[in-house]
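Re: your question about UDP-N-acetylglucosamine 1-carboxyvinyltransferase

S., sorry for the slow reply, the queue was backed up all week. Below is exactly what I fed in.
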Amino acid sequence: MLLCLSFFAALLAEEPVEIQNVPKLKDVDTSMKLLSQLGAKVERNGSVHIDARDVNVFCAPYDLVKTMRASIWALGPLVARFGQGQVSLPGGCTIGARPVDLHISGLEQLGATIKLEEGYVKASVDGRLKGAHIVMDKVSVGATVTIMCAATLAEGTTIIENAAREPEIVDTANFLITLGAKISGQGTDRIVIEGVERLGGGVYRVLPDRIETGTFLVAAAISRGKIICRNAQPDTLDAVLGETA
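Result:
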């Protein structure tokens, strides 16, 4: 699921994007389908090619969101670039019990107006979002990404305190930098984003999926077998390697 972060971030780009090293996972297929429904041109021929220039639908519908709650990651890029976005909430409007409230709080601090109507989170802004100093109540990978993506096109500087530090955060930041974003501090608990007026296109090779790699490693350990995982990145697998060594 975390691998799909760059897919949603690609909504910010005004030129075509090529994402390399993408595994064949159901969440990847769902993300591609969602982007297509929003109006992006999405193709896969080894790499995944995303052209979001013609996005003209700003709503992530329930039939897709129910299969992958990570669809909330579309909200930040949509409101940042197009001034509006809607994402369905599985189970309706019971926000308080869901981690999505951190996404909402972050977008509100950037100047977005948020409404909860008929099971949808609806975000809008007049003009551009505004940079802000955001101290997160708790560490959240998803909310960190939402704020970081939205802040890339905000006017001014955004500082995220108590930010998540996972490898996927670093990878998403590096992807955005490839497109022209100005981000520093990724991998620490303090990320600084200098807003720019637009993001272009580019080619980026995402991290190998550590959940996929970890699954194979654990399977080999349980079966007392032997496995070679090529194209893995060991420095992102400390927890798994420590348990299976």
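The chain has a mean pLDDT of 90. The first strand starts at residue 17 and ends at 20.

Happy to talk it through on Thursday.
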